[in-house]
Amino acid sequence: MSEIELHEVSHEFSTPDGPFPVLDNISLKVPEGAFTSVVGPSGCGKSTLTRLISGLIKPTKGSIKLGGTEIVGPKPTVGMAFQNPVMLEWRSVVKNVTLPLEIVAPKMPVKEQEDRARELLKLVSLEGYEENRPSELSGGMKQRVSLCRSLVHRPEVLILDEPFGALDAFTREELWQIMHSLRAEEKITCLLITHDLRESVFLSDEVIVLSDRPARSQYRINVDLGPERSLDDLYTPKTTELLAVLRHQIEVAQGRK
Amino acid sequence: MEMRNNLVRKVVVPLVAIIIFLAIWEWIVWINGWPNYKMASPSDLGPSFWKYRVLFLEYGWDTFWRTVAGLGLSVLVGTLLGMIMGFSRIIREGLYPLLVGFNAIPKATVVPVIALILVGLDDLNTVLIAFLISFFPIAVSVSIGLSTLEPEYRDILRSLGASRLTIFWKIALPKTLPEFFGALKVAVTLAFIGTNLMEIVEPHGKGLGHLFDSGKINADYPLMFSVLIALAFLGIVLFYIVVALERIFAGWAERE
Fold first, then answer.
1. Is CATH 3.30.450.20 the classification given to domain B41-253?
2. What is the CATH number of the domain that holds A192?
3. Three-state helix/strand/coil letters over chain A
4. Predicted confidence (pLDDT) at residue B205 exceeds the cutoff of 80
5. Which domain range does residue A205 map to?
6. Minimal Cα–Cα distance from B145 to chain A, Å?
7. What is the ipTM of this complex?
8. A-B interface: how many C-beta pairs under 8 angstroms?
9. What residues of B are in contact with residue A99 (Cβ under 8 Å)?
């Protein structure tokens, strides 16, 4: 009931110089409970894709369905996290996490909202930081808070727009593992936009390569590493081969090959 | 030891500086033998305050509430204007030249105009000048705060179907508070100047400005200087009221 389905979606922005095509005839499907990554050259329209799926903008052509129903606007069954963790500096960590509940479930008692937030914060090892101010956290910790916030209202679909992009390599790998444990606890369908090929392979069941703008889906590959993954899996011959294929496809997408 | 050092630095040193300043002032008046119709000395101020104590309280209150009323109007109109300009680019671009032009007019020249238009309505025209002189920084800071809000801030709530009003209330407004209070600190000083401008340029028998004016007419230097000191005191009180409000509502923006 919560699969993501894009059918022949095209999108263009109107500019003073006429229409500016960003996405060209993209069809893709993320089955319920699956994790799909979208990679592609920078500026190819990946972020536009997330805004379309979350209902923030409407596609020029084609249809987007969540769980079989066409999207007409923003839906509370969607969770989003961005590269910028957007912390509300005037709120404590736990209050940052409860924010979506205040919109989606305003009648829910504050105590319950906070309990749910604390449960998630514990999952991402931020127990003990609930009452801290965001300014007291590191970049990786803020991103973990942001992940909790995107999940607090139990969305069916999670859209991640390069959430680990601005982190250092070690923190990023740590967050990949946290993402794995979150997935084990919270049943969600996930679409990740990323630049990082290793990240896409480590986290997802399927990777889709988009071409340069206007983006078309140019290549897709299954990642059959199974549900239990460790960082060591990234250094096996099998994944090395997968990564090489993806790298090649990105270069094709950029028109370099 | 640490606390004693702090006490010395924050209380004793400034106090010594004030005493030295007053002593030099007293000495200059004394060495020149200036009488009270020529120049006041610090030792004249006490008696002057005491002599006019009722007037100081009454007129001081006038000046205080008019400034606060003008500033309140500024906050209301400035925030509203800032909100409109912050949310609509067309309105922002349309209003900006007008506002900048208006702000460029020296307000001392507006005082007689307002006084003439609203002749007899002394409280109203004083409050109006305090308002006119002080709303600009508030409008600008609120509009900049809102228009520079990163799109992700809006998107985290918009993607959940939140209304514009909710987004404003939960995110845009609190996020703009530090800028708002920065502007309010400027505005409170300006409003105070506005009130005094009206009271001094168009005297109408109220406010500390009027007391100053009557001191001027009678060449009563001790009274004039007493008024200046009362004004400084009132200005400081107003400023620190704003600082206290800032601590309460936007204290989170301060970093150690």
1. no
2. 3.40.50.300
3. CCCEEEEEEEEEEEECCEEEEEEEEEEEEECCCCEEEEECCCCCCHHHHHHHHCCCCCCCEEEEEECCEECCCCCCCEEEEECCCCCCCCCCHHHHHHHHHHHHCCCCCHHHHHHHHHHHHHHCCCCCCCCCCHHHCCHHHHHHHHHHHHHCCCCCEEEEECCCCCCCHHHHHHHHHHHHHHHHHCCCEEEEEECCHHHHHHHCCEEEEECCCCECEEEEEECCCCCCCCHHHHHCHHHHHHHHHHHHHHHHHCCCC
4. no
5. 4-253
6. 14
7. 0.78
8. 58
9. 156-157, 170
